[in-house]
Write a structure and sequence with these properties.
Length: 71
């Protein structure tokens, strides 16, 4: 009798694991789609606001000053 209960318990654990894998897969797909949309909108907004696509981005307000000392 204990073997039957153990077998049923294992079946339910397997079904639970499969369902969680499906949910995690769907979540990963949705995350990838959302990241793609956000990246596309970032590029589109950058292009429309006189930014440029690709390459290095301009640093905003971070200017480097070099000083020379007189000795």
């Amino acid at each position: 009798m204990g073997a039957v209960v153990s077998c049923i318990k294992s079946c339910f654990a397997t079904i639970g694991s499969v369902l969680m894998a499906i949910v995690n897969g769907i979540g990963s797909i949705l995350t990838a789609i959302i990241h793609g949309i956000v990246s596309f909108l970032d590029i589109l907004i950058s292009f429309l606001t006189c930014g440029y696509c690709g390459g290095k981005r301009k640093s905003r307000g971070h200017k480097t000053h070099t000083t020379t000392s007189r000795i």
